[in-house]
Amino acid sequence: QVQLVESGGGLVQPGGSLRLSCVASGSIFDINAMTWYRQAPGNQRELVAHSTSGGRTTYADSVKGRFTISRDNAKNTVYLQMNSLKPEDTAVYYCNADITTGMLHRAYWGQGTQVTVSS
Prior knowledge:
Blueprint: E1 3-7, E2 10-12, E3 18-25, E4 30-39, E5 46-52, E6 57-59, E7 67-72, E8 77-82, E9 91-101, E10 104-109, E11 113-117
Parallel strand pairs: 2-11
Antiparallel strand pairs: 1-3, 3-8, 4-5, 4-9, 5-6, 7-8, 9-10, 9-11
């Protein structure tokens, strides 16, 4: 019943910027935490950025200073602003949200969006 819809992926040149968005919809009581992951071909999925309901954020070392995770709680949306992009940032990016629905909570996943950094 809960759905996460991602947008903002695409092709960008090295040094460029993209902003990913993930909107949660459905029977949502509360979004407890939201996270961005990515997976490149031949690699395991890795955590990119994490945001708690209280606004605390963490980042992978490889993206610190370049990526920023933010939330708009009123719109049930999480963003990932990606600046100074590098070819090694190329991956499928997924959003994940821990969501309370009624008296239950669980993790939900977006469909993934491709980010390609290439000249």
